[in-house]
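Model the whole thing, not chain by chain.
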Amino acid sequence: MSKTNITKPPSGRGSSAPVLELSGINKHFGPVQALHQVKLSLYAGEIHALMGQNGAGKSTLIKVLTGVYPADNGDIRLRGQLIRPTSTLHAQHLGISTVYQEVNLCTNLSVAENIFAGRYPRRGAMGGWSIDWTRMQQEAKDLLQRLNLDIDVAQPLSSYSVAVQQMVAIARGLSISAQVLILDEPTSSLDDDEVERLFGVLRQLRDQGMAILFITHFLGQMYALCDHITVLRNGELVGEYAASELGQGALIAAMVGHELDASLGATPAAQSSTAPTADWLTTRGLARSGSVKPMDLSVRQGEVVGIGGLLGSGRTELARLLFGLDRSDAGEISLNGQLVRMDCPSTAIKLGLGLCPEDRKAEGIIAELSIRENIALALQARQGLWPFISRARQTEMALHYVKALGIKTSDVDTPIGQLSGGNQQKAVLARWLATQPKLLILDEPTRGIDVAAKQEIMNEILTLAKQGMAVLFISSEMSEVVRVADRIVVMRDHAKIGELPAGSTDHAVYALIAEHA
Amino acid sequence: MSASSEPLFKRLLAHSLFWPLVTLAMILVVNASLNQGFWVLQWRDGHLYGSLIDILNRSAPLMLVALGMTLVIATRGIDISVGAVVAISASVAALMIGGTLVINNGVPTHVSRFPMPLAIVCALLVALFCGLWNGLLVAKIGLQPIIATLILMVAGRGIAQLATGGQIVTVYYAPYFYIGNGFLWGLPFALFIAGGTFLAVHLLVTRTALGMFIQAIGINPAAARLAGVRERLITVCVYAFCGLTAGIAGLIISSNVKSADGNNAGSLMELDAILAVTLGGTLLSGGRFNLAGTMVGALIIQTLTSTIYSIGVPPEINLVVKAVVVFVVMLLQSADFRQAVRGWVFRPDSSGGVA
């Protein structure tokens, strides 16, 4: 990345003891050892990365550190004092502030209320019996100003985009004047500009002597920001490194445990299969006011079509339209030349479509149902109430996909909500693969999951495409789109602006988008 | 008696039904200690008689309503109109069967206005329609379930009173009394209706995918819809079924008291039903549900009500007594509360807390 002119100041290492020191941390859930003898040292004035695959124990470590779970044993020392946080609130009082991966805010409250929830500035007699709204809003405004965010803090949070909500969550983390700031995947819904702004603030905080623990799956961002790296694998400490001394390849090897094939090696699926098959799905002038402008699209069997475009370009809306989640108000869809009416998802599924939604938590998983039931759900829904897929058959199916996709779990009867993000995503993918769809629409299938899982999912997709399944691939990571797609449909402002062949670079996509500005 | 419940008890020790059953047993024991002859069962005229049989018979309507309510609650909904639907169904049946006593040649005979099967079918159809109405308001219009069913809760009593002209309609037709007072193989017939309905629903949710779909809808409706579950259709059907069970309960109640009172039949039954569902271990937040638990919950409530009457609690405070008992039972069934009590009794391990 391009922040080479910013020289990293010498961290406080060597001159003083660590601000936060964890040693010998053990934690197990039932028979699963989530953390085993993990240690971590965090010094003032450094940004420290915590890296590892999904399920490596990063989130568990953070939760132990912030009092969500008690550790089985091991010591946590803050400035040399042994502490034992019993709740996040307790951790905050001790000076450890956390911004969690999922936005944990109340969307119906105002921005200012969210930032100061539980710590409202008071005024009036007897220790302050009323909330000082003016001061709260002014302070909220000042805090957001530090993130270069100028919004009306009296508005409810729901009136802002997810990216802004994420910034508000970070502002909340910053407002707790802490010695230690923990950020768990704070950038997954931010665009490049916003990431830059956030990094600016973090560097400023570091220079003021705060210790920052930063968790991300984006290796580039990690190298741009962090001074030291602690790597976890399968709940165990792999090692602690200086960022400048650990190359990207070595880092991935440390995380995964073996060398990954250079991720650029994947080839577009159908390039090899030369015989062009007929179009399976075609749309003509398909549109819905306010979400997709008239769209002509065709997808052949065995073809991976990438949708290139920026956030808000109408990619997700297109997927929803094709899958019957939204009704179109103009144009037509035909499958194999036959006109069809996509009026609801169950129709789309019967016709052979599948959709892995963008928001896994809200639209993908049924958290309290087991992995087994989650995987069987779409197939069962297609069959209707009867015949019922027996429990034995469900288990067999689930075990098959657990093995095929490498879903990490000891038991397919575990509620899916207990899996890590990447494994949840694989299970949702398995749900669709079980229906053997003719066209699978993947909306951000690799968001928030680690390098190895990403690679596994992509490989699986390409294998399936080779077997004749058509794939519509939507991702914010343009490099991913160009790598797997046989053809890239570029969107901008809710309309298709062109197509690029396989092998185009992501620059070509951006150039096309810029051209139509 | 205790000999037959002993092995059952052991089997259920680790079961989700354990605490509901413990609660029921405790109320029964209290009942028995205050009421001599509580356990006594007598065989008279080919029927079983006794307090227990009486409780079983009286709890049948609540069991039915609570079964329908369980499925509604599992979809993350609630139906507070069931009491009104009970009244409507009771009124329709009572009106159609007839309130006249005809004397032919000096012999008084009971004549129904319409054939009884027709009356029953009509009453159930009206109840089913009430449920459908609720379901459509919730699933198609998108009203909050509590508001959607509030409409029928308020309007339903009005409709029932309109139908009966504000009067209590008395039924003079002996065959109809069988539903609520009759005996089959020595046991109350109403119990067979409730048991049969339970069995049917149980088979439907375990032997078809219905149970899985209802849970999926209750936990995450958006994801269920996206996975192809016909979420709206199932929701409408579940509310319709809830209306139907309330209708059957209405028939039993009107048959039992040989009349229909549009104003009081099934009064506050919605609350008892919700309570039965909750006591049975189904969360009001939807998702996982427990039909057998609901049946036990209904028994708990009916036993409690019977106890309060039989031990002679003054009528003006019996609701307060009931509320207190329900409160204690709820605390007892909460795992968190039990944990906390354990914490009060045994000091929590504080070793290593402070350096």
